[in-house]
Predict the 3D structure of the following.
Amino acid sequence: MKNNLVQPIRIGLMSGFIAIFLALIGMVETFDKRDVISEVISLGATVLLLTILSAAYLAARGQSKNGVRWMFTAGAVSGLVGGGALALFIFTTTLIDMRGVFINVKATLIKMLTLEQEVLALGLMYLIGVSTITGLVGTALYLTPSRVRQALLVAFLCVLALGVMQELLRVTFANVGFLADLIRSLYEKNGLSRVGAASIFIVTFTLTFAWSFIQSPVQARIAALSPRGQFLLKSTSFLLLFAALFFIPKALDNVYIGEVMSNVGLFILMGLGLNIVVGFAGLLDLGYVAFFAIGAYTVGVLTSPERGGTLNFWQALPIAISIAVLFGFILGIPVLKIRGDYLAIVTMGFGEIIRILVLSDFLRPWLGGAGGIVGIPKAEVLGFKFAGPIEIYYIILIGILIVVFLAIRLKDSRLGRAWMAVREDEDVAQAMGINLVWTKLIAFAIGASFAGISGAIFATKLSTIYPQSFKFDVSINVLALLILGGMGSIPGVIIGALMVVGLPELFREFDDFLFLVYGAALVVMMQLRPEGLWPETTRLRELHHEHAPAEPTTAD
Amino acid sequence: MRQSLRERLSFTDLFMWVVGALIVLIIVYGSISTLIIGRYSSRQWFDFVVNGIMLGSVYALIALGYTLVYGILRMINFAHSEVFMAGAFNSYFVGTALNQSGYLEQNPVVGLLLIFAMAMITSTIVAVLLERIAYRPLRGAPRIVSLITAIGASFFLQYTFKGLYGAGVKAYPRLPVLNQSLEFGEFKILYVQIFVVAAALVLMAALYYIVQRTKVGKAMRAVSEDFDTAALMGIDVDRIIVITFILGGALAGAAGVLWSLVFPQVNFVMGFIPGLKAFTAAVLGGIGNIPGAMVGGLFLGLIESVGPGLFLDGLKVTAPHQLKDVIAFTMLVLVLIFRPSGILGEKLTQKKA
């Protein structure tokens, strides 16, 4: 590679554009309200610096054959150009009033970006200077040994995460004496205290660094265990996990955490259902929310006294599941003959049809139209009322256990293998004697039943359901968690639900950027890691073989 | 073996035919009873039809974008609805500025041209960036991967525009000229209706000319026929794909302006429903088929506009016009089941999809 500056400049420009983009959509400003380290650096500034830093890292990597001096030059240049682009943007905003068009170009943003300097030129100089130094840091990061780099990265992410999660940790552990004290000592005002940040950094750095030395021996030991030993290990860790999930909400005795965990749980239920349809059988269903709605509305209509319902939750639940299954069949039969992309669109149309019908005045006498159904009673067992989110969490947990068990058993069953065969190649599967009609229908029906359970619990959890709760976004959420976790993988569903539903619940103040980040995450995931975070083994193999041939049109 | 296969097929086929026959019966019964009740005057029917044609021509313009991309890449460009939204949204700013300075009223032709230019340029840029950043790295990946990318890109674009311009609904400037009407006896047509249909026709004619008569169009048709062979014949496939996205984007931008002239407000989610409808229209006409998209758009617009009044009123459904989307999506399902190739298309759903 030649010693030229074209590539670093290009990368720097790109990072500058990304930084401007983040500023324009309001991300920098919103994130600036939160400090990672109190009064030292805000989340907004961190995001910008990270952008510049990663650009410099890439620029340095591009020059890795040209010696250290060139790498530092490249890093500095990319930082300089990135900061320069941002500075130019700020300068332009002072010349032209952009507020009429871009709502986020505010005085506060400019103030923050110029590091709160009174004189604009000085502020811009500072900005460019900081970016250049960040560029050099990026290069230095590239040059550090990978083991140290990894530990640095983990430690940095820990500080970042803990810095942002202050409120949450405070609320969560408010009822647990010694943890509450520890947390109080780590934070001040709006973020981590300097001492707190430093100690977290050092502790996590040391731990990760140490782990990097013992990681492979430990993994080798685990791999060397007998099948029986591995099974024992797996089941003990599973039991531990389950115990933790069972006792945590009770121990924390915190309504907010109960609420978040039950929301995650509802999405795990749906995710497991969609996993059967999309992950196992390969039928992309974008109208999955319809079954969730059907479950919720069935329970609503049957139990709410306002709608003349007389049943209790436990009587209505099996009916809700059966109706969801019925609709699974009804949708399944017509779409059986449709493949691939068309299936996605038709199911999406189906989801919209259900929502519009529920919302319409035509069905208002039965389903309440836009007003929804109110007064759905809580579930009861022997006089114990599952009223609050923590109690409902236990219903959900039991539901998840049953569903996970079913999903694991189904996956390895004859039916599960048939699904996977259909997913891989319908024609070959049929030639092998698999009954396509039946196999697909069952997938739809089982997927629908899981969503029906989830919807039923959702109805009793909220006591009120509105058509607005069943928008297309829900289907996308479920799909996103599947993809993030890894399609077809059951632990993947759980990880995905934690990330897609759990994390956003914890960052309510950044709600505006939720779908933006999802969208970007889906696109990036598909390019870099289409198999998901916790992939199913067969899928992993398959996706990494398919990189070779490129033939988009020769599908006939 | 063969016997049992036939038995299985005949079960689902039978079921589908029964469902289809039921729906047709409902439609016929509904229409007859509506006509007997005589709830709508002939003027109202005329309005329904004119409105349907107008909506249909906008759908057709968007549908062309889906069809062009599908024809070449065999992928559903799910984010096309956001390309449409982007054009409409950015043209709003030009429109408002021109409106406030009074220029739009003095010089509506040039004003409209500027608005169209802004919309078409924005949409084209968005479409090209979309192809370059999101789709190109995935050439040849499994179809589900590109569809999911498209869905992700669609959400990303929606919320980008929300971040840039805010979540509120903005009122699109109205042109007083377009709100006048032509009257023939009791029938009346708004200028905006004529304008939308005329503009759509001109654009479609231009597209047809490009695809059928120019060298680029020839290359596009070749690539859509056979990707690899076209590349072997010396066609720069990447360039043709970019041109396809440019054409689709420009049409979507124009459609965005036309849509906003009819429903004068813009918002970051405004693309979803028209996009879905336009895709339905593309499938109705036979996806990958350019005249098909036009026919499908018109058909869908008419069904949607006339359908609720004609089919549902006679069945004593309250507020039937709320259900127009249900009719549109039901049409989609029915077409895909009974004529997967669409009205004018080749048989695609089962073979190539």
